[in-house]
Amino acid sequence: MRKLIILACIFVSLRVNVSALTFSETAFDSPCSESGQLSSFSFSSREKSDDENEAESMLAYAIGIGCILFGIGYYWLNNVRFFDYPYDENATPADGNYIARGALSGLRYTDPGYSRNRFTFDTSLVYLHGFGFGSELRFEGLFFPYVGPYFENLVLCNPKNGDSDVSHDGFRDNVKIGGQLSLLQTNIFSATLIVLYTNWLTEHFADFKRGCNVGFLLRSYPIRPLVIEWRFGWQLYSGDFQVSESDFHVGYMLNRYELFASFKSLMFLNTEDDDFFDDFYGLSLGARVYFSL
C-alpha cells in the first residue's frame, strides 16, 4: 500500500502529454520502391491546443489525487480496531485506548475486547426554546472501520402556538435512517460522513417530507474521562426547503457509559424565499452506552 501511495505521488507530479501520431501517405506502401530503394517511413506529432493540454493535466491530477486518498484511507482504516469503550481500563497499553491501529499500538487482533466494529446507543431529554420539549434516541456504529448504520428519532411537544409556520402547538416527530462512511479514526479526532433518509411525521410540516440528510459526526477522546462531539448537517427537501442542524456535545465517561450535555440548534429555511426562516436553540441531557459485537 505504501508503494501505491508513492506511485500515485509520482503520477501526480508528471504532466501527461501524449502526442497523436500521423503517418505519411507512403508509410504502409511496399518497403521497396521501383528503383530498389527502401520507401521512407515517417511520422509527425500534432501539437495540442491549450485546452486539450489543460484537460489532460486536470485528469491526471484528479486520478493521482484519487489514488492518494484511496491509499491513505485504506492504509489508515484497514488496520483500525476498537476496544469495548473509550478509556477502557483493560486496554493495552494501560492508558486506556479506544481506537487503535493494530501492531502500531503493540496489539494483536486476538486480544480480548479488540474488535473491528463499534456501536453506541443514547437517549436524551431535549428542550428547544419555542419549538418544544421531548426526547431523542440515536443508534450508530461501524460494522467495519469503513461503514455502518445510523438511526435518529427526535420527538418534541410544543404546548403553545408560535408565530412561524413550524412553531405551532402539538407534537413533531423527525425520523432519520441511513448509514455513515468513516473518514478518519483516531482517539484524538475521528470523523464520519452521514447520509440519511429524513422525514417529519407531522401534519403541519407538509414542506418537510421525504428528504435527504447529509452531515458529519466528529468525535474526540482527548483526555480521560472526557468526550467531545459535534454533529452537524443539512436536511434537504423539495421546493428548496432545508433544515440546518447542529449538536455540540461534551460527555463524561463512567466505564462503558457516558453522561453528556449538548447545545442544539435547528434552522428552518427556504433558499428561494427570504421570508421563510425560523431558528431554535436549546439544550439536551442524556446517557450513552458503548458496545461491540
Give an overview in words.
Helix content is 14%, strand content 49%. It has 293 residues and is mainly beta. Helix 1 (2-13) runs antiparallel to helix 2. It is flat, with a radius of gyration of 28 Å.
Produce a short descriptive summary:
The chain has helices spanning 2-13, 50-78; strands at 20-23, 43-46, 80-82, 99-101, 118-128, 132-142, 147-158, 170-185, 190-200, 211-220, 226-236, 241-254, 257-270, 273-291.
Number of strands: 14
What form results from the Cα inertia axes? flat
The overall average pLDDT, rounded, is: 78
Beta-strand residue fraction: over 45%
- The strands making up the biggest β-sheet line up spatially as 5-6-7-8-9-10-11-12-13-14
Main sheet, how many strands, which sense, barrel? 10 strands, antiparallel, barrel
- Number of distinct helices: 2
Helix content: 10-25%
**Are there runs of 5+ residues with pLDDT below 50, and where?**
14-28, 38-44
Content-based structural category: mainly beta
| Element string (H = helix, E = strand) | HEEHEEEEEEEEEEEE
Distance between the termini: 29 Å
Structural Rg: 28 Å
